[in-house]
Amino acid sequence: MDDRDGHIWFDGEFLPWREAKVHVLTHTLHYGMGVFEGIRAYKTDRGAAVFRLAEHTRRLFNSAKILGMRLSHTPEQISDAILDCLRHNELQSAYIRPMAFYGSEGMGLHAHNLRVHTMVAAWEWGAYLGAENMEKGIRVKTSSFSRHHVNITMCRAKANGNYMNSMLALKEAEDCGYDEALLLDVDGFVCEGSGENFFMVRDGMLYTPELTSALEGITRDTVLNLAAEIGLPVRDKRITRDEVYTADECFFTGTAAEVTPIRELDGRVIGSGRRGPITERLQSMYFDQVEGRRESHPEWLSFVNEE
Ligand code: PMP
Q1: With 70 as the cut, is the pLDDT of residue 307 above it?
Q2: Contacts of 303 (CB under 8 A, 6+ apart)
Q3: Average pLDDT of the chain, as a whole number
Q4: How far is CA 268 from CA 41, 244, 265, 276, in A?
Q5: What are phi and psi of 219, to 5 degrees?
Q6: pLDDT in tens, 274-295
Q7: What is the pLDDT of residues 185-234, one digit of tens each?
Q8: Which domains does the chain have, with CATH numbers?
């Protein structure tokens, strides 16, 4: 990752990719206290466009507020940096990673006097869970790791440290030959994937877990909007694992994962064992939306070369 051409925005200036480095005593590296975002830009007829830039920027600042971190830039400066990063690297489509983290001014758990640094990197990245799986669907394993309790690390924050839990769950699932993990909450109800929100279709109704300890996904919100547009009834409720086994269709949503069908959970085939018709409809609407082929929600696209 670190050895490539291009530029990374770091504290207000663009640095050559290989030179965007930090010290080994960087505080966030030691304790995981930092916040980040995952954003995508898509190629459209009007050039590259960042999808839901305002919402991602807002979530970055909300995550920082939850952790009590004071960012050194304004939301406008960060949004501009994201658009500049795509221009600078001449990217038509990209995954974009902004992150705010504490510097190396001190060690120990006290965070006063630490400088907050911010970076934005962008690179081309295809389907996160595999291109062929967008049609075939993925195989998922219920994790032996629970999602965080709401009073442990606070799940509304997209915080670096929260992802240790995600990585443990993903590794366990992969080691068992699955593609992704499904994490339950501390009460045993379905919560989310390691980096995705969860949806299920039963008898023509779309269900998604209450957000309690899941991240408030922007793709989740997009899919809820698309479902409303086609008159698909939606309920958020506590979901049990056996309801998932007997669902008609299931899928994950996320900026990286987009809309990824789930074909199996814990060795139980879901529905027909491939992408279901409602998943397919929402997935194709999603791609039409992010690639600028729909008329609704023009405010969701920030065109990189039109300002
Ligand atoms: N849950 C977790 C734990 C995630 O990391 C992500 C990815 N950001 C999501 C859900 C989906 O969120 P979004 O749709 O905003 O990418």
Answers
A1: no
A2: 44, 46, 47, 48, 49
A3: 97
A4: 35, 9, 5, 15
A5: -70, -40
A6: 999 999 999 999 999 999 999 9
A7: 999 999 999 999 999 999 999 999 999 999 999 999 999 999 999 999 99
A8: 7-123 (3.30.470.10), 133-290 (3.20.10.10)
Ligand 1 pocket: which of 152, 162, 196, 222 to mutate (most atoms within 8 A of CB): 196
The number of CA neighbours under 13 Å toward the Cβ of 63 is 28
Q: Which atom of ligand 1 is nearest to the CA of 59?
A: 15
Which residue's CA is the nearest one to ligand 1's atom 12? 217
State the sign of the Cα–Cα–Cα–Cα dihedral 100, 106, 112, 115.
negative
Residue 190 near residue 143, CB atoms below 8 Å: no
Tokens of 40: 């995508």
Residues annotated as part of the active site:
158
What would the pLDDT profile of 114-166 be if each residue is shown by its tens digit?
999 999 999 999 888 888 999 999 999 999 999 999 999 999 999 999 999 99
Cα-to-centroid distance, 107 and ligand 1 (Å): 30
Structure tokens at 136: 């075939």
The amino acid at 280: E
Q: Is the pLDDT of residue 45 over 80?
A: yes
Residue 111 scores a pLDDT above 90 = no
216 Cα–ligand 1 center, Å: 7
User: What Å distances lie between residue 203 and 136, 228, 232, CA to CA?
Assistant: 21, 17, 11
Nearest ligand 1 atom to the CA of 194 is 3
CA distances to 32, 46, 246, 247 from 271, rounded to whole Å, are: 40, 39, 7, 6
Give dist(CA 271, CA 269) in Å, integer.
6
- The structure tokens listed for 289 are 């939306």
Identify whether the C-beta of residue 33 lies closer than 8 Å to the C-beta of residue 70: no
Residue that is written with structure tokens 């990585």 in the block: 167
What gap in Å lies between CA 73 and CA 85, rounded to an integer?
16
